[in-house]
Amino acid sequence: MPDGSVQPLSGGLLFTFEGCSSISNANGDLLFYSDGKTVWDRNHVIMPNGNYNAGTGLLGDPSSTQSAIIVPKPGNPDIYYIFTVDEPHHENAAVFPDQNTNVTPDQDDGFNNGLTYSIVDLSITGSNGSIGDITTRNSYLVTYNPINNSEVAYKCSEKITAVKNNNGSGFWVLTHFVNKFYAFKIDNNGVDPNPVISTTTPFVSINGYRKNSIGYLKSSPNGRKIAIAHSQLGNITGGTEENGQILLYDFDNTTGIVSNPISLVTGGSPYGIEFSADSRKLYATNGINNNLSSQLLQFDLTTTPINQVLIDQYNSTAGALQLGPNKKIYRANFSTQSNIDTHLGVINNPEIAGPGCDYQQLGVELVYGSSALGLPPFITSVFNASIAVTNICLGDPTEFTIPANPNLDSIDWDFGDGNTSTQVSPTHTYTTPGNYTVSVTITVNGSSVTNEQMVTIHAKPVAYAIPNQVLNQCDDDGDQRYNFNFSSLITNTILGGQDPSVFEVKYFLNNQDAIDNTNAIDATNYTNSTPTFIVYARVSNKNNLLCYAITNFTVNVFKRPVINALSNLIICDDALDGDTTNGQAIFNLSSLNNDILGTQSASENTISYHLSQNDADSDSNHQPLSFYNTTPNLQTLFVRIENNLNTDCYSTRPFDLIVNPLPIAIPAQLTQCDFQVNPDGLTTFNLTEANGILTGNNTNYSTQFYTQTNNITPLNTVYTNIQNPQTLNVKITDNTTQCYSYTTLTLNVTINPTTIVDLRECDTDGTEDGFTSFDLSDAGFEIPGNTTKYYLSGNDALMEENAITTPLDYTNTQANNQRIFVRSENGNDCIGINVIDLTVKPLPDIETEDTAVFCLNTPTVPITLHAGIGTQNPTLFTYFWTPGGETTPTIDVLASGTYTVKVTNGVSCFKERTIIVKDSDVAMVESVAVTDLSDNNTITVFVQGNENEFEYSLDSPTGPFQLSNHFENVTPGIHTVYISDIDGCGVIPKEVSVLGIPRFFTPNGDGYNDTWIIKGMEKGFYANSSIYIFDRFGKLLKQMAPGGEGWNGTFNGQLLPSTDYWYVMNLEDGRIIKGHFALKR
């Protein structure tokens, strides 16, 4: 625009991720633009000879960092050169010199075309009506070593820039490849194809292409510097590494030589670079974190070493930077994480160091499009007539400069307020703030150019000093650190009524930071590190931070003393004022001082006492340390403790003065008994028995007893009087307030004879251990109108301690005999102490339970029952039997039943013995079960009634007996089972037969096994059975009857041979038994 501002245009047809270029006239009107392949006129019509899709396009690439730059031909306003650089792709290089056919034709032609230029003539009309057309297209320029096939395959990087020459008569167009800069001269004769070549560091390997080729190349507006961004310096074809570099070079715009490299950044993925209009600052974008975010960096080229400042870091890809005619630098925003690509970032004041450059991420809204990575590059040295202005604060001499030009013919300045100058770098002081249109007309080699610029003169603020330039602050926690909010404490004072919407106040810890406007502290939340420090307040015009004023003040942080501990002062009413009941007394306030101070220094702080909070806050009406309360019983005072170095640092707290009343003390007397053998009127008292009268039954009062009021040690409350009567002094203390009064206690002793009564009880509690229960009232000492209590000792009775709590059911605590003391009193006066002797009488020593058996099988034989006295003399006891009423130690009975005898000893204590006589009888056998002819012969006997009332023995009438009625492993033959009544009524036998068949016999005449005979058939058992013997052929050899002598192994008198023989037994119980046996000789 004419004023140098930037405005997005509508209707544009340029859609590219990176490379683009455009050019306007001096009024900011668009002339034409290109993406490096296609060229559009100002009306967005494609020039016929610059239509890539029609086969007449240029050889740049929209994916190239700087696909094109447009340079006007010197001396001819209608002719322009479009210089293009292709994207040097490794896939194209891989098939060189052939065409890479694996590309999208409308994006890449499959060749690395390097640097070319085309000529645009705006004086002609294209065949389609375009304003201007291309007259010469794609002239190649060599920027590589033609004998190096690798360089020929790539040809050039993606970088290109243009700068005016030293005398303004022409331009230099520069690019870079590997380790060389190529500078081509353009003048009114056209383009010189022979470049000036400068070899420099670093060496950018083509092994890392295409990524090594990415990044911007820019020249400074004054034409003296070149800056380059290498996105990476890799060695892997097609690889990605974050090891890029930014370098600064000197440029000789007379010779075209590039020299003196200075590395500014190493690491990351640098992309965009741009100089400020005064050529003193350089800005760059650097991709980090895999290009997911980027940094905006500022380099101050006037410092040594060059100072670097991080201006911004954001989740945006590193994009292009471009200086505009308005001296602002614009940044291409591109992010997949937000919508910032609808805006360009803007550095509003690029010539100011640090944050003062005022970067705005969302600086210019792109109403008609969006941002990606690229911006159209301008020849910034064309702005060489641009005006540089410094010191734009009202009252300061404002300095005006333009870039130096040795061929300057003349210069005319108009400052916009009616004042002019013809100096090259004039100064002018404005008298009022406001906006002024400043113009400069320069004439170089007979040609004149005028540049206008709006200059705003800003009001310069005043920094008003705070009173005495000192801020004293109290610290509450004692560490002399305080969290300051200077904005609320100081800012209004420093502004002194100046408009806070126009001026701002920042605070710094040193003057240089305040001047540089750096390292400002948090004005709303700052905590000091030292007790005393200086703060510098800078008041700045918000519209121009360079318009500022500075004041300073000293901050002192004092400890605010604390009231460490404070208790109410409590004393008892006294007679010092002649009245013990008026609730007034004298207090020693200084007794609180040590607690109030704690560990704080008494010399650094002062303590005072006041009647009200207002007095304490105003430090007025100090009260004496010896203070007599004017409000009875309770009065509130206020204590103040202040720092002696700053009495405004103080603390206060209320506390109470409390006067407690004295306890009411009532005189009393105690009367005690003297029950000694020889009573002397001296006995032992339990003084606490008088407490109820002395204290008026106030349980919160305690007593102490003294023989004199000035005694220090109180008497033991168990006290023996030294005379009769005797008066003691008693101190009555309120246990809550510890206030006390004195009264008297009179001790009296009565002398009465002691009565002894015996109480005797039988030991009938079931344990017979000499302990039993007594009703002590049976002694007859309880008289109506008196109080009677029972004690285990005479001393307890005197002291009235440990009284027996269950006198009506008391069990003695000493076996057999114990003495009990009975105290009878009227009121609290002892009228007698008597004695009860307790005796526990023993019971007869007998067995209280027994049993006996009456045998029904001998009904005429009586049973003798005994009284259970054992070997004791029967004459020592009397007897009574029930149910018969007999009185003898024994009785005879002929029937079963329960019999009881009551046995009484000589002390009239008795015990009863119970004898249970039960019936019993001998057994009656019901049956016998026999298992025989087996490996385990058994006998089981079954009797009538309960078989557990009997014991059993086999073949032995005297035992041993067993409780089980079952016998196992019984030998064959005739056996007798003996059954015994367990109550002793007799034993009965039962014969049983167990059959057994011999497996062999030896008829050899030796008297052993000479016959074969069946065991168990003796004595008439199995008498109706028959036995048959056969040889192995079934011949009957012998028929036998049970109980005989057996078979002797003969047949008809003849000895039969040794062999097996067979038998058949037909038993009377129905069994038929068959088998065989052996005859052995």
Automatic annotation (TrEMBL):
Domain PKD: 405-457
InterPro entries per record: Ig-like_fold (IPR013783), PKD/Chitinase_dom (IPR022409), PKD_dom (IPR000601), PKD_dom_sf (IPR035986), T9SS_type_B (IPR026341)
Annotated CDD domains: PKD
Domain of life of the source: Bacteria
PROSITE patterns: PKD
Protein name as annotated: PKD domain-containing protein
The species this protein was found in: Flavobacterium saliperosum S13
